[in-house]
């Protein structure tokens, strides 16, 4: 199966349109009361599974009590990223900080359409904590986010991208605005923040004759896009995205995919994750129908005995032979989708950070309570086949 085979294009889940202006009622969200969220004067003892609270988590709680919610969120996120545990109270504190950040964005009038989608996902994840105080806060935010969706939203305005070779100013401006919006949304999805400033902007080339450019550069590509990232001493010194300007899916599918790849390389510039993980994370930004094509391919590949065992798959450093590329893509996208469905996108990011240091088995146990890669394979395949 070649990449993209059996894919069809319909409406884009990311609602990739240029948003319009929005006016919302400003709402102040005070810190939750002690009865709703903050622990009593004598905090409960840590659970047996969390015998020691990490220093980062402690700093998060101190910042939370000082009402510095942005700093507290950063500390809690750092603790999760390195695989350090949070107590139940700290999970709730972190949840409040994340909700507070959403409220701040709404009140500032800087909520883009894509951010709105990510915020709704974030709130859904926070609600899993089943905290009455957070549920009330969440309900208020969901109401405003729904109003935002009805009225439109403010477009992103940053300088992370430069457009080259656009056939007209309108398409170039559209590509830049769209890329900025995707970038912000993907940082929010995978890292829980709006992202760092890129000292080196990403150049997006909209080629009118993409195949001629590939031939001139002596490059091959199965998709209508090509990414160039140059690293020097763990620092990104060049970013380029080359796209086929005449591909009907250039803005709907390919731009979200490759911008997400850029975000992932920035998040993991010190040590890039496996290629299957980068491809899977990027593919989750594509339209629902494109994603469905990958997911629906896995049961058929299983019947045909073409899937790799996960033990072999996770050990692969490079792409397979060309005739197996479709299997590689489908398996990678499906595996990432499954793990993200379990505990969310940011938990998957934390898992990828920990895996190189401790091994996949240890990271699976820490983040997903899965003992071995073999157990992961069993659970993943049951999920792919629709079995509980």
Quickly count the helices. 15
**Percent of residues in β-strands:** 5-15%
Report the C-alpha radius of gyration, rounded. Answer: 22 Å
Strand order of the largest sheet: 1-2-4-3
Describe the structure.
The chain is α/β, with parallel strands linked by helices. A 4-stranded mixed beta sheet has the order 1-2-4-3. The protein starts with 54 loop residues before the first helix and ends with a helix. The N terminus is likely disordered.
Q: What's this entry about, in short?
A:
The protein is of the alpha/beta class.
Write the layout of secondary structure elements.
Blueprint: H1 55-65, H2 69-81, H3 88-108, H4 113-126, H5 132-151, E1 161-164, H6 169-191, E2 202-207, H7 210-217, E3 225-232, E4 235-244, H8 250-267, H9 275-283, H10 288-303, H11 310-314, H12 325-343, H13 345-358, H14 360-368, H15 373-384
Parallel strand pairs: 1-2, 2-4
Antiparallel strand pairs: 3-4
Helix pairs in contact: 1-2, 1-3, 2-3, 3-4, 3-5, 4-5, 4-6, 6-8, 8-9, 9-12, 10-12, 12-13, 13-14
